[in-house]
Amino acid sequence: MTLVSTMHPGSLSGTGVRPVREVHADLGAAALAGHALRRGEGALSEHGALVVATGAHTGRSVQDKFIVDEPESTGSVWWGKVNRKLSVEHFARSTDQVRGYLSGQELFTQDLYAGADPAHRIRVRLVTTHAWYALFARNMFIRPEPEALKDFEPDYVILHAPDLTIDPMSCGVRSSTVIALSFAQKLVVIAGTRYAGEIKKAIFTVMNWILPEKGVLPMHCSANRGRNGDVALFFGLSGTGKTTLSSDPDRPLIGDDEHGWSTAGVFNFEGGCYAKVIDLAEAAEPQIWSASHRFGTVLENVIADEYGRLDLANRSLTENTRACYPIDFIGEAQPDGRGRHPRHVVMLTADAFGVLPPVSRLTAEQAMEHFLAGYTARVAGTEAGLGRHPEATFSTCFGAPFLPRPPEIYGAMLQRLLQTHGATCWLVNTGWTGGAYGVGQRISLKHTRAILRAILADGLADAQFQHEPHFDLAIPNAVPDVPWSMLNPRHAWGDPNVYDEAARRLRALFVQEREGRRQTS
């Protein structure tokens, strides 16, 4: 196969990069896969997906992410552990190193949109040294029509140098890895990490910065719509089932990860999906399985043998194995990435302490509190370094690492939108019942799907509810196809007194998290 490319200087307009080698601008999936194979960046699976490895970084480098401390934005940024300060001078040095490095490399650029609603989208230009990152971005973001590329001028630029090791001393950073965002210069610099997720999450952080000032709530959630147009949102941290449960053959997918809620309704930020595929099974998740076995998909840190056969249970590189594919690889997807105001908002948690009920209804005020808490619990076997006991995890707004503004801004917006548009919020536990992890049992996917069917069909609209005292929750007395004994977790435990003690301990963790958040806001 012969790949012919020409220099496209215009594709680097506004980037500050002065190339001396080839620049491959806005290539499609076939050409990018061809270049990736030519350059030895990866290999094809037996079904044609591009299989790549990311080396030492198999997830986000949270401690290496910085926001530039600029006069225009410093008073509005939620500074602290999430958003670390980088001086203008140190950012300039980092940028100079990255630009100098990129200028000497073969480059791949992509001009893309973030935001399916034209009223709230931004234009993004990626400059990278690898074909597979260009394919990743092309899958993940929204691809403009060819006519729109002729006069494309970016709102934000990403300079991406995954193999460059930054000098931390001169650049004022922690290590040779840096992910830095300048809101004033509208520039993202990523160097020293080969994990592709940094690209998409950097732009998500940008959207979390821009949209609140426009009265739009940015959300780390998935969304789908029913046949009559009703929209549901699904919030949840990793391991709670957000991607799995929103991928429903009977409800077209609007998007699986990032959305905005405006006065016109809900819209996807992205044009693709970035699904975890560890232990992926065709029977349980047929849509994601099918998308992961197609040409054009990027499989990140998935193991394949010499024949290209995938081993989706292999954890030798990481448990955070991913498939990146365009959203239209999902058979039932909303083509324009937009929907009405949501009728139902589902907050997912995998409570490994076995305390929270499988389903409960929240008031708008409670929804804001659970949104700000962003709770789930991790267990051994799903997170490296954990022992045998569950560990509570809180990520405010279900996306703390991507919030440049104080969490209360997003929380107040959610509460107002729920009240204005009459959406009902539900807390759904996909974790344990009858006891904590190691004693109780995991709530089955079959029962969780039955709960969601009831919610989304308005089957619980006229249900009778009982009061749960520890978290002040409303538990339905009955849900079709779900055993009555499961619905109230106190009844599911062998000893109700032991349950009460476990519930008090978990409640104390919620209070502790809330007080800690208030001290940092």
Automatic annotation (TrEMBL):
| Similarity-based family | Belongs to the phosphoenolpyruvate carboxykinase (ATP) family.
Q: Where does substrate bind?
A: R60, Y195, K201, R322
Give the species this sequence originates from: Rhizosaccharibacter radicis
For activity, the cofactor(s) needed are:
Mn(2+)
Locate the residues binding ATP.
201, 220, 236-244, 285, 322, 442-443, 448
GO MF terms, alphabetically ordered: phosphoenolpyruvate carboxykinase (ATP) activity
- According to its UniProt record, the EC number is 4.1.1.49
Q: List, alphabetically, the InterPro entries matched.
A: PEP_carboxykinase_ATP (IPR001272), PEP_carboxykinase_C (IPR013035), PEP_carboxykinase_N (IPR008210)
Name of the protein in question:
Phosphoenolpyruvate carboxykinase (ATP)
- What SUPFAM superfamilies is this protein classified in? PEP carboxykinase N-terminal domain, PEP carboxykinase-like
The protein's annotated catalytic reaction(s) are: oxaloacetate + ATP = phosphoenolpyruvate + ADP + CO2
Protein location: Cytoplasm
Keywords for the protein's UniProt record, in alphabetical order: ATP-binding, Cytoplasm, Decarboxylase, Gluconeogenesis, Lyase, Manganese, Metal-binding, Nucleotide-binding
